[in-house]
């Protein structure tokens, strides 16, 4: 099951966001990353004050905020925001028109009303077409709490980047138990301690159902993940040595056999670099020495 190619549609139906009824009724928040560090910054309470002065003052209080930040940031932001507004956060307050209807819109002209209706219908139709096109290539699949699933290993997922998966490596690792369902298309997985640095919530497209077999002996995947989501391969031995001779200098290389979760693999490394990092490898003699002169082996 861990090595077979899937011939089924990917899992997980599209979950679109709701369409706002009016401009500034729902806003999206995000931050620009990758900028240089500065000595001064804006803390969350100060950010709430700026938000009140620049957004709430001009456009009113939105009914919802969409953000890809974690729950802790959202919680601290809303707490500071409500403190700046002088109110307490309660989901049934007058600032939530979905619950008690006390919020009113400003007077609109007939032209604006018709334009909003046409825009809303167009957005719904566009969203419906997008969902229909997306779901044609997907299937709706559900798992129950306590079931076991495999986790997909790809170059784009966190597991794939950690394992640095190769061509013949297993396509899935596991199986691991499902702890609970998160939303409609995600599940919280019980990961082993070696994968504790990974986020334990996975989209349904990244898991595969494990078919229980009493005769199946499960071998644990011995994977040790560092804090930077990489795996350290251990050098086992030196299999060879080559000297690349240039016009004015010679550069020695050694062939190192590495050991890791995916088995052994060999690479050519600079001899000076390996001597400084792994001096214990050079206690014995090399198996063979080759001299490369302008790309030709002597």
From TrEMBL:
Pfam families: SH3_Tf2-1. Coiled coil: none annotated. One of its GO terms (biological process) is DNA integration. Gene3D superfamilies: Ribonuclease H-like superfamily/Ribonuclease H (3.30.420.10). One of its GO terms (molecular function) is nucleic acid binding. InterPro entries: Integrase_cat-core, RNaseH-like_sf, RNaseH_sf, SH3_Tf2-1. It comes from the Eukaryota. Residues 47-183 form the Integrase catalytic domain. This is Retrotransposon protein. It comes from Trifolium medium.
């Amino acid at each position: 099951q861990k090595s077979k190619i899937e011939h089924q549609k990917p899992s997980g139906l599209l979950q679109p966001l709701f369409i706002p009824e009016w401009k500034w009724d729902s806003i999206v928040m995000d931050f620009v990353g990758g900028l240089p560090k500065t000595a001064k910054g804006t803390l969350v309470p100060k950010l709430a004050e700026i938000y009140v002065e620049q957004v709430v003052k001009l456009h009113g209080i939105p009914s919802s905020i969409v953000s890809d930040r974690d729950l802790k940031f959202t919680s601290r932001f809303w707490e500071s925001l409500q403190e700046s507004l002088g109110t307490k956060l309660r989901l049934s307050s007058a600032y939530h028109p979905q619950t008690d209807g006390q919020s009113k819109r400003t007077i609109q002209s007939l032209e604006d009303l018709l334009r909003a209706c046409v825009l809303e219908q167009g957005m719904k139709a566009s969203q419906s077409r997008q969902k229909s096109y997306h779901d044609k290539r997907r299937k709706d699949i559900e798992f129950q709490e306590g079931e076991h699933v495999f986790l997909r290993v790809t170059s784009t997922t966190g597991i794939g980047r950690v394992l640095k998966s190769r061509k013949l490596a297993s396509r899935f690792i596991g199986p691991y138990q499902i702890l609970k369902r998160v939303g409609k298309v995600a599940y919280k997985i019980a990961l082993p301690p070696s994968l504790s640095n990974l986020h334990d919530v996975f989209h349904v497209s990244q898991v595969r159902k494990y078919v229980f077999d009493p005769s199946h002996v499960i071998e644990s995947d011995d994977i040790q993940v560092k804090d930077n989501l990489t795996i350290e391969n251990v050098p086992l031995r030196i299999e060879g040595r080559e000297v690349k001779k240039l016009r004015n200098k010679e550069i020695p290389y050694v062939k190192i056999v590495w050991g890791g979760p995916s088995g052994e693999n060999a690479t050519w490394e600079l001899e000076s670099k390996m001597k400084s990092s792994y001096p214990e490898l050079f206690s014995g003699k090399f198996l063979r020495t080759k001299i490369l002169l302008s790309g030709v082996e002597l």
